[in-house]
Amino acid sequence: MKEFRLYAITAEQFHPNRELIEVMEEAIIGGADIIQLRDKTSGREELLRKAQALRELTRKHGVTFIVNDHIDIALEVDADGIHLGQNDLSLEEARKLVGNKIIGISTHAIEEARLAEAQGADYIGVGPVFRTATKVDVVDPVSVSYVREVAAEIRIPFVAIGGIKLNNVDEVLAAGATRVCAVSEIVGSDDVIGTCRAYLAKLGNKEA
Ligand SMILES: Cc1ncc(COP(=O)(O)OP(=O)(O)O)c(N)n1
Ligand SMILES: Cc1nc(C(=O)O)sc1CCOP(=O)(O)O
Ligand SMILES: [Mg+2]
């Protein structure tokens, strides 16, 4: 997959007075190079409309577009890939459906990371590193020690996620992460472009 560093995920509850596309375009202008549509509340039609708009936006800017949970929608809008959870369909089944599109999968322990790598995931999510209020059914924080384990052993790209803010990202980078995902800190910011640039400034001197 194309290299990435700063992963931004949609979360409209953090910008109730601003349009999804406007906020995500600012994230891209600020330097987010992979965007995920994550939406737990919209019906299928609405989700499809958002996915189409984000596909158009990400194509325009040449950034990677991932859909969370909904493989059918990812295929319908020709997204670059999908993101799976541990309780979603297996990597093997997903691979049959999406062919050579990107498959990312969440992991919360080194055994899950090893399995994801062995089963052909293109990247893994590593988290939640810190406590997060963005995801409701989330497991306990895995802490930076899990980031350290993954950095030492796993060879496919990994992205640290969960409670990562500008004021604690240095700790995550020091543990070996070279890619981070921040949700509320980016899309809930009054200055989305500046926030992304600030993450990138911190990521900039890390080798991916
Ligand atoms: C990059 C990234 N990492 C982890 C997740 C979490 O995905 P999942 O476990 O499927 O949980 P939901 O996001 O569906 O609540 C993610 N979306 N993206
Ligand atoms: C969607 C998601 N997945 C996680 C995981 O650990 O798998 S943590 C998370 C939410 C991250 O949001 P914020 O940056 O606002 O804490
Ligand atoms: Mg999911």
From TrEMBL:
Known catalytic reactions: 4-methyl-5-(2-phosphooxyethyl)-thiazole + 4-amino-2-methyl-5-(diphosphooxymethyl)pyrimidine + H(+) = thiamine phosphate + diphosphate; 2-[(2R,5Z)-2-carboxy-4-methylthiazol-5(2H)-ylidene]ethyl phosphate + 4-amino-2-methyl-5-(diphosphooxymethyl)pyrimidine + 2 H(+) = thiamine phosphate + CO2 + diphosphate; 2-(2-carboxy-4-methylthiazol-5-yl)ethyl phosphate + 4-amino-2-methyl-5-(diphosphooxymethyl)pyrimidine + 2 H(+) = thiamine phosphate + CO2 + diphosphate
Domain of life per record: Bacteria
InterPro entries: Aldolase_TIM, ThiamineP_synth_sf, ThiamineP_synth_TenI, TMP_synthase
E.C. number(s) listed in UniProt: 2.5.1.3
Cellular component, GO annotation: cytoplasm
GO biological process, one term: thiamine biosynthetic process
Domain Thiamine phosphate synthase/TenI residue range list: 6-186
Pathway assignment: Cofactor biosynthesis; thiamine diphosphate biosynthesis; thiamine phosphate from 4-amino-2-methyl-5-diphosphomethylpyrimidine and 4-methyl-5-(2-phosphoethyl)-thiazole: step 1/1
Note on cofactor: Binds 1 Mg(2+) ion per subunit.
Required co-factors: Mg(2+)
Residue sites binding 2-[(2R,5Z)-2-carboxy-4-methylthiazol-5(2H)-ylidene]ethyl phosphate per the record: 132-134, 163, 183-184
GO molecular function, one term: thiamine-phosphate diphosphorylase activity
Keywords associated with the record: Magnesium, Metal-binding, Thiamine biosynthesis, Transferase
Residue sites binding Mg(2+) per the record: 69, 88
EC primary class: transferase
Residues that hold 4-amino-2-methyl-5-(diphosphooxymethyl)pyrimidine according to the record: 36-40, 68, 106, 135
Family to which this protein belongs: Belongs to the thiamine-phosphate synthase family.
Function: Condenses 4-methyl-5-(beta-hydroxyethyl)thiazole monophosphate (THZ-P) and 2-methyl-4-amino-5-hydroxymethyl pyrimidine pyrophosphate (HMP-PP) to form thiamine monophosphate (TMP).
Protein name: Thiamine-phosphate synthase
Organism annotation: Paenibacillus albus
Gene: thiE
